Amino acid sequence: xxxxxxxxxxxxxxxxxxxxxxxxxxxxxxxxxxxxxxxxxxxxxxxxxxxxxxxxxxxxxxxxxxxxxxxxxxxxxxxxxxxxxxxxxxxxxxxxxxxxxxxxxxxxxxxxxxxxxxxxxxxxxxxxxxxxxxxxxxxxxxxxxxxxxxxxxxxxxxxxxxxxxxxxxxxxxxxxxxxxxxxxxxxxxxxxxxxxxxxxxxxxxxxxxxxxxxxxxxxxxxxxxxxxxxxxxxxxxxxxxxxxxxxxxxxxxxxxxxxxxxxxxxxxxxxxxxxxxxxxxxxxxxxxxxxxxxxxxxxxxxxxxxxxxxxxxxxxxxxxxxxxxxxxxxxxxxxxxxxxxxxxxxxxxxxxxxxxxxxxxxxxxxxxxxxxxxxxxxxxxxxxxxxxxxxxxxxxxxxxxxxxxxxxxxxxxxxxxxxxxxxxxx
Amino acid sequence: xxxxxxxxxxxxxxxxxxxxxxxxxxxxxxxxxxxxxxxxxxxxxxxxxxxxxxxxxxxxxxxxxxxxxxxxxxxxxxxxxxxxxxxxxxxxxxxxxxxxxxxxxxxxxxxxxxxxxxxxxxxxxxxxxxxxxxxxxxxxxxxxxxxxxxxxxxxxxxxxxxxxxxxxxxxxxxxxxxxxxxxxxxxxxxxxxxxxx
Lengths: 426, 197
Prior knowledge:
By secondary structure, chain A is of the alpha+beta class. Chain A has helices spanning 2-31, 106-111, 117-121, 138-142, 191-194, 265-270, 312-322; strands at residues 34-48, 81-92, 96-104, 150-158, 163-171, 199-210, 213-220, 234-244, 247-257, 278-290, 295-308, 328-339, 345-354, 365-372, 375-377, 382-393, 404-405, 411-412, 414-425.
């Protein structure tokens, strides 16, 4: 009997050591460096009820000197269209993270337009003229063609549990929507997204005061551009607040001196380089609140402006072009969605956007309503998004024409589209 | 048969009965309900020893990948209550392993002299999604793990239920082994005596 009890006691002791070992092993497993891979592809087909003659949803070809930008990525009418192909690698250990986010396809080039050869090498005959600042040696700049595939490439060094530093090319902190179709509720992107920054190259530091407050600040070249056109850097900042679980507030800012490499029209017309002498600032509020387990409400509001310092003839030219020496743009978007089930949801986005001064891309005042009913299948891998979008715009200042295009190629104030997007992620 | 032999036989049968009793458990994971409990006889172990063993097991749980918070830990009543949670993934390993959500559950352990009982229940899945900064965050939406169906993501849901069952079966085993640990008897210190020469 004594021996039996001893045996039970022995096995109990050995057994008791197992959980401690098992839990410790689990902990060590969690601390091991990890490499993960993810990505997605998306495609869509849309029909515009205004049947634009050009076959695109961009708008009236007579608007804004021939460059209407009525849509961000979903630009083609009545065509099966490929959006983007993403492959994202991430390495993570206790002290650092590395992200290599590579994208290919039409939307990759649109999202990364500041890194594409046409912008770096120029769109003119023979690629000799430049629409952006580039290195003086054209042969050197041509080497940067593969940069179009880099959506993000950065590392983060976690100096302490609260303080981290990030260096490289990273997605912007500004705005509610992102390039990645699986993350956005609606497939068609807002004007706030399309007229705001997409990415930056630079460095930033982030400090977590508590799980309710985090502050990020950094310096970047500018917006959406591989290169800087001067030695001045733009300052970025984000204050994150979490008043309660499910309620997130982001107060975002970017500002810089002479940081817009796309403002070339006025400089070209006058031959002066006074556009170097200005500042540009953008304030952005992005917030979301999960009101119930099924109902979500989000808000995005942005206000940006230039402040041109030029005087005399240059100042007059700027006022003639933009209506003011401090032309502004901005907008507000309200998002709501309801999860009917794990498979089906419905969401509505209302947006008002004002770029009447044409300092960004759309160059009009536009109101839009988008209704999307995402269907999630295949263990969350496949998302099918039927979507209805209604846009209404005022006449453009440049050209004074109706913004959208009808079946005869003339202007019309509205555009209505219905389409389906297919997104597969892994 | 001598009386001594009879006594040994009775004792053996009694021990087999005790072991048999502890095997009548709801920890085998066979039930479709996510509810794991057992009443265990721990002969010769005091309430205090059992309470200490339960506390040590919970400390180990806290040191693993689980987040555990206790709402009650009363050695006089012999009760420990709390909630714990762990993360579940789209795949268990490899480069495609991604966070899918969090499972929370209630823990209840009660000890008395020579016996104890425990109960793990109220298993709830907390949905996660990727936010616009690519962080996985809770959506606020929840789903009971007792619900066997999940249209649109049945395969993944089954894997979360299976992960939970296996984890809890393991926890039941680990807890029961920990609970029979004998208290350590502190070794006597040798104190040098000063003696007259």
